[in-house]
Amino acid sequence: MTTTSERTAEDLQASSERPAAPLRTEAFRASRQRLLRGFGRGGKDLGCPTANLPDESIVPMSNVCKPGVYFGYAQVYGLSGQEGKVHPMVMSLGWNPFYKNERLTAEIHIIHEFMSDFYGHDMQAVVLGYIRPELDYTSKEALIEDINTDKRVALRSLSREGYVKFGVDPNLNNNIMEGVCRR
Fold first, then answer.
1. Which of 132, 67, 56, 70 lies closest to 94 in space, CA to CA?
2. What CA–CA distance (Å, rounded) separates 63 from 83?
3. Residue 149 and which of 3, 14, 15, 101 are 20 to 30 A apart at CA?
4. Model's pTM, two decimal places?
5. Tell me: the pLDDT tens digits for 112-130?
6. Using CA atoms, how far apart are residues 101 and 164, in angstroms rounded to an integer?
7. Residue 178 CB neighbours (<10 A)
Protein backbone atom coordinates (compact mmCIF):
# COMPACT_ATOMS: atom_id res chain seq x y z
CA MET A 1 0.00 0.00 0.00
CA THR A 2 1.04 3.55 -0.66
CA THR A 3 1.41 6.00 2.18
CA THR A 4 0.24 9.57 2.06
CA SER A 5 3.76 10.76 2.61
CA GLU A 6 4.40 9.47 -0.93
CA ARG A 7 1.11 10.46 -2.57
CA THR A 8 -1.82 12.41 -1.13
CA ALA A 9 -5.52 12.16 -1.92
CA GLU A 10 -5.28 15.60 -3.53
CA ASP A 11 -2.49 14.33 -5.83
CA LEU A 12 -4.61 11.34 -6.80
CA GLN A 13 -7.67 13.52 -7.43
CA ALA A 14 -5.67 16.03 -9.49
CA SER A 15 -4.46 13.24 -11.75
CA SER A 16 -7.95 12.73 -13.23
CA GLU A 17 -10.52 15.52 -13.66
CA ARG A 18 -14.02 14.71 -12.35
CA PRO A 19 -16.61 14.43 -15.11
CA ALA A 20 -19.41 17.01 -15.35
CA ALA A 21 -22.01 14.35 -14.44
CA PRO A 22 -21.99 10.87 -12.89
CA LEU A 23 -20.63 8.15 -15.11
CA ARG A 24 -22.76 5.06 -15.50
CA THR A 25 -19.76 3.03 -14.43
CA GLU A 26 -19.45 4.95 -11.15
CA ALA A 27 -23.06 5.27 -9.99
CA PHE A 28 -24.42 2.88 -7.39
CA ARG A 29 -27.53 3.08 -5.25
CA ALA A 30 -27.31 1.54 -1.81
CA SER A 31 -30.63 0.17 -0.61
CA ARG A 32 -32.21 1.49 2.55
CA GLN A 33 -30.16 0.18 5.48
CA ARG A 34 -30.25 0.40 9.27
CA LEU A 35 -27.19 2.33 10.49
CA LEU A 36 -24.92 0.75 13.07
CA ARG A 37 -22.35 2.04 15.52
CA GLY A 38 -18.88 1.28 14.30
CA PHE A 39 -15.57 1.19 16.09
CA GLY A 40 -16.06 4.66 17.58
CA ARG A 41 -12.96 6.11 15.92
CA GLY A 42 -14.53 8.33 13.26
CA GLY A 43 -15.89 11.02 15.54
CA LYS A 44 -13.63 10.58 18.55
CA ASP A 45 -10.30 9.82 16.89
CA LEU A 46 -10.59 11.50 13.51
CA GLY A 47 -13.15 14.29 13.96
CA CYS A 48 -15.28 12.76 11.22
CA PRO A 49 -18.26 10.83 12.63
CA THR A 50 -19.32 7.89 10.50
CA ALA A 51 -22.11 5.35 10.52
CA ASN A 52 -21.46 1.80 9.43
CA LEU A 53 -23.63 -0.08 7.00
CA PRO A 54 -24.65 -3.55 8.21
CA ASP A 55 -22.42 -6.49 7.30
CA GLU A 56 -25.07 -8.03 5.04
CA SER A 57 -24.85 -4.99 2.73
CA ILE A 58 -21.05 -5.17 2.41
CA VAL A 59 -20.77 -8.30 0.25
CA PRO A 60 -23.19 -7.13 -2.47
CA MET A 61 -21.51 -3.72 -2.50
CA SER A 62 -18.00 -5.17 -2.63
CA ASN A 63 -19.02 -7.29 -5.61
CA VAL A 64 -19.45 -4.11 -7.67
CA CYS A 65 -17.12 -1.66 -5.89
CA LYS A 66 -13.42 -1.93 -5.25
CA PRO A 67 -12.16 -0.70 -1.88
CA GLY A 68 -11.74 3.05 -1.82
CA VAL A 69 -13.35 6.38 -1.06
CA TYR A 70 -16.54 7.39 -2.88
CA PHE A 71 -18.87 10.39 -2.83
CA GLY A 72 -22.58 10.94 -3.30
CA TYR A 73 -25.69 11.81 -1.33
CA ALA A 74 -27.39 10.24 1.68
CA GLN A 75 -30.71 10.56 3.43
CA VAL A 76 -31.51 9.53 7.01
CA TYR A 77 -35.10 8.45 7.73
CA GLY A 78 -37.04 9.03 10.93
CA LEU A 79 -34.72 11.69 12.34
CA SER A 80 -36.63 14.70 13.68
CA GLY A 81 -36.20 17.74 11.45
CA GLN A 82 -34.47 15.76 8.71
CA GLU A 83 -37.38 14.11 6.89
CA GLY A 84 -36.90 14.39 3.16
CA LYS A 85 -33.50 16.11 3.47
CA VAL A 86 -30.65 14.82 1.32
CA HIS A 87 -27.04 15.62 2.25
CA PRO A 88 -23.64 15.17 0.59
CA MET A 89 -21.63 12.22 1.85
CA VAL A 90 -18.33 10.41 1.50
CA MET A 91 -18.08 6.66 1.93
CA SER A 92 -15.09 4.51 2.74
CA LEU A 93 -15.41 0.93 1.57
CA GLY A 94 -12.49 -1.17 2.65
CA TRP A 95 -10.20 -2.62 5.27
CA ASN A 96 -8.98 0.64 6.84
CA PRO A 97 -5.32 -0.46 6.78
CA PHE A 98 -4.23 2.27 9.21
CA TYR A 99 -6.38 0.58 11.87
CA LYS A 100 -5.61 -2.97 10.68
CA ASN A 101 -9.27 -3.95 10.30
CA GLU A 102 -9.86 -7.69 10.08
CA ARG A 103 -13.08 -7.31 8.08
CA LEU A 104 -14.37 -5.23 5.22
CA THR A 105 -16.52 -2.26 6.28
CA ALA A 106 -18.54 0.48 4.61
CA GLU A 107 -18.56 3.70 6.61
CA ILE A 108 -20.52 6.77 5.57
CA HIS A 109 -19.81 10.30 6.72
CA ILE A 110 -22.68 12.66 5.97
CA ILE A 111 -21.36 16.18 5.44
CA HIS A 112 -23.86 17.92 7.70
CA GLU A 113 -23.98 18.96 11.35
CA PHE A 114 -26.71 16.86 12.98
CA MET A 115 -28.21 17.82 16.34
CA SER A 116 -28.14 14.17 17.50
CA ASP A 117 -26.72 10.89 16.34
CA PHE A 118 -28.71 8.74 13.96
CA TYR A 119 -27.58 5.23 14.82
CA GLY A 120 -30.44 2.78 14.58
CA HIS A 121 -32.20 4.90 11.95
CA ASP A 122 -32.50 3.88 8.33
CA MET A 123 -30.41 5.57 5.67
CA GLN A 124 -30.26 5.38 1.92
CA ALA A 125 -27.33 6.54 -0.18
CA VAL A 126 -26.47 7.01 -3.81
CA VAL A 127 -22.81 6.73 -4.74
CA LEU A 128 -22.05 8.99 -7.69
CA GLY A 129 -18.29 8.86 -8.01
CA TYR A 130 -14.96 7.49 -6.95
CA ILE A 131 -12.39 9.70 -5.25
CA ARG A 132 -9.38 7.50 -4.60
CA PRO A 133 -8.15 4.07 -3.56
CA GLU A 134 -7.80 3.02 0.03
CA LEU A 135 -4.39 4.02 1.41
CA ASP A 136 -2.28 3.10 4.41
CA TYR A 137 -0.98 5.99 6.47
CA THR A 138 2.19 6.77 8.33
CA SER A 139 0.32 8.95 10.85
CA LYS A 140 -3.15 9.77 12.10
CA GLU A 141 -2.57 13.39 11.04
CA ALA A 142 -1.97 12.31 7.42
CA LEU A 143 -5.20 10.28 7.50
CA ILE A 144 -7.15 13.26 8.88
CA GLU A 145 -5.67 15.51 6.19
CA ASP A 146 -6.82 13.13 3.45
CA ILE A 147 -10.30 12.78 5.02
CA ASN A 148 -10.66 16.56 4.87
CA THR A 149 -9.44 16.55 1.26
CA ASP A 150 -11.98 13.81 0.42
CA LYS A 151 -14.78 15.97 1.83
CA ARG A 152 -13.63 18.98 -0.22
CA VAL A 153 -13.40 16.85 -3.37
CA ALA A 154 -16.91 15.49 -2.73
CA LEU A 155 -18.43 18.94 -2.21
CA ARG A 156 -16.64 20.34 -5.26
CA SER A 157 -17.78 17.43 -7.44
CA LEU A 158 -21.37 17.51 -6.15
CA SER A 159 -21.62 21.24 -6.89
CA ARG A 160 -21.44 20.50 -10.63
CA GLU A 161 -24.72 20.77 -12.50
CA GLY A 162 -24.84 17.10 -13.48
CA TYR A 163 -24.59 16.03 -9.83
CA VAL A 164 -26.78 18.64 -8.12
CA LYS A 165 -30.04 17.05 -9.33
CA PHE A 166 -29.34 13.95 -7.24
CA GLY A 167 -29.25 16.04 -4.06
CA VAL A 168 -32.70 17.56 -4.45
CA ASP A 169 -34.69 14.33 -4.77
CA PRO A 170 -36.09 13.28 -1.37
CA ASN A 171 -36.20 9.70 -2.62
CA LEU A 172 -32.60 9.80 -3.87
CA ASN A 173 -33.65 9.31 -7.46
CA ASN A 174 -35.53 6.06 -7.25
CA ASN A 175 -35.15 5.87 -10.99
CA ILE A 176 -31.34 6.21 -10.95
CA MET A 177 -29.63 4.22 -13.67
CA GLU A 178 -28.46 0.79 -12.65
CA GLY A 179 -24.71 1.06 -12.64
CA VAL A 180 -21.69 -0.03 -10.70
CA CYS A 181 -18.82 1.58 -8.87
CA ARG A 182 -15.34 1.51 -10.34
CA ARG A 183 -13.90 -1.96 -10.37
1. 67
2. 31
3. 101
4. 0.80
5. 988 878 778 888 888 888 9
6. 34
7. 8
